[in-house]
Specification:
Blueprint lengths: L1 E11 L14 E11 L2 E6 L11 E12 L1 E3 L11 H8 L4 H6 L4 H10 L2 H17 L2 E7 L6 H17 L3 E9 L10 H8 L2 H9 L5 E4 L8 H13 L3 E6 L7 H8 L3 E4 L5 H10 L2 E4 L1 H7 L6 H6 L4 E3 L13 H12 L3 H7 L2 H6 L17 E4 L5 H5 L6 E6 L2 E5 L2
Parallel strand pairs: 1-4, 5-6, 6-7, 7-8, 8-9, 9-10, 10-11, 11-12
Antiparallel strand pairs: 1-2, 2-3, 4-13, 13-14, 14-15
Helix pairs in contact: 4-5, 9-10
The structure holds N-(iminomethyl)-L-glutamic acid and fe (iii) ion.
């Protein structure tokens, strides 16, 4: 048995998905201890001062606060090249869409990814995952979507698989071939989809277990609602659960589509309207809020409070990518959710743990600290959880435990 003791306060939500408009969202244990057996949480106790049982290993948390390992349920962590030129253009007043339409944007990253080998992409992404671990993150979803050809999309998925096996964070792969229409198929989105949605490709993905989810950028000038429906329905036949980049720039009915196809999540929602909100509430789809993306682009945030008040469970993730949000830090993103979206620290904590786990269909295993759950635990170098949000942008992680093993010590 491993015992983590001397925890000033332990904060955890219940298993996801949960509505965030309830009082007492988070359970707190004070002067607490956690017992871990076989990588799983055996017990959680308050006011723990007992002698150490014979044979037990002990981690003394030293009066620090403890939270569930953080879960980043929406990222584009695998990419080559950088796009600081676009950051400068935006600072000069150009918009994300203008830059994309004049040949920058996703397409410039696609060129770099196509030119990079699998090994090079692994080497480029590895330090990003190490930094995420240093921020207390134990599970990360990673999308393809910068390959935009059968060969390069499969390469991206294999990169994610190789990364998953080579470092402690659990990675969950998503097939996002429908991220943009490559130049060879300009004006022929359907033709492009014919190639990346062929039975052969999807069978390879299923057989090699290269992805668990399918995603699509359903947006004006990218994929239409009908094309997006095709992507998600076809991928579902091969076992990939649907997710959607929806209502980010224009309102074209993407989140209504999410509701219709029973997507697990609908992500972005900066431009969601009343009707769409009702639709996703009915379908039980989880809203993934990406506050660091709007912060980075300098555009209005998704209406988080309205979404939460409507009773839609919400998750918060980074959307880390080389264009619209080059922010790797989930804790910084969580602070931004408080200051720019009007969410409370408790809501955000649950959004980036229990609800993020639900988005990734793992809520019965990760995302909360309860007996029976996998022991994914982050010890903060802080006496309480609120300080993690308050010290925005500062890394307050002390120790990270994944499935009962210490995988990172910052200090
Ligand atoms: O989630 N919206 C589309 N995809 C990314 C941006 C990708 C990029 O600019 O490279 C996003 O914001
Ligand atoms: Fe994204």
């Amino acid at each position: 048995m491993l015992i983590i003791r001397n925890i000033s306060q332990l904060c955890s939500g219940p298993k996801g998905p949960v509505r965030l408009d309830k009082p007492e969202l988070v359970t707190r244990h004070y002067h607490a201890a956690i017992g871990i057996d076989d990588g799983k949480i055996a017990w959680v106790r308050d006011s723990y001062d007992e002698p150490i049982p014979p044979g037990a290993r002990v981690i003394d948390a030293g009066g620090r606060a403890v939270i569930p390992g953080l879960i980043d349920c929406h990222t584009h962590t695998v990419f080559a090249g950088t796009r600081e030129n676009e950051f400068v253009l935006r600072a000069e007043g150009r918009s994300y869409s203008e830059i994309a339409e004049s040949g920058g944007g996703i397409k410039s990253t696609v060129k770099a990814v196509q030119q990079a080998s699998l090994e090079e992409l692994v080497a480029i992404a590895m330090p990003r995952l190490h930094r995420m671990l240093e921020w207390g993150v134990t599970t990360v979803e990673v999308k393809s979507g910068y390959g935009l050809s059968v060969e390069d999309e499969l390469k991206m998925l294999r990169v994610i698989k190789a990364l998953n096996e080579a470092q402690p964070i659990e990675l969950i792969p998503t097939y996002l071939a429908a991220h943009s229409i490559p130049n060879e198929f300009r004006g022929d989105g359907d033709g492009y989809l014919d190639s990346v949605l062929s039975d052969d490709v999807l069978k390879t993905i299923a057989d090699e277990q290269l992805a668990e989810f399918a995603d699509v950028f359903c947006e004006r000038n990218v994929f239409t609602v009908e094309q997006s429906r095709r992507v998600l329905e076809k991928c579902r036949e091969f076992g990939l659960a649907p997710r959607i980049h929806a209502d980010q720039i224009a309102q074209i009915g993407a989140s209504k589509l999410a509701a219709e196809v029973g997507a697990v999540s609908v992500d972005h929602l900066e431009e969601i309207d009343e009707e769409s909100l009702l639709a996703i509430k009915k379908s039980g789809t989880i809203a993934v809020l990406l506050p660091a993306c709007s912060f980075y682009l300098g555009v209005p945030q998704a209406p988080a409070r309205a979404i939460i008040q409507a009773g839609v469970p919400a998750a918060v993730a980074t959307d880390f990518n080389p264009g619209s949000c080059c922010i790797e830090s989930l804790p910084l993103t969580m602070s931004i959710a408080c200051t720019q979206m009007g969410m409370t620290p408790e809501q955000v904590l649950v959004a980036s743990t229990a609800n993020a786990a639900a988005v990734l269909k793992r809520a019965d295993r990760i995302g909360s600290i309860e007996p029976g759950m996998q022991a994914d635990i982050t010890i903060l170098d802080l006496p309480n959880v609120e300080q993690m949000f308050y010290f925005a942008g500062r890394n307050c992680t002390h120790t990270v435990i994944k499935a009962g093993e210490v995988v990172m010590r910052n200090r």
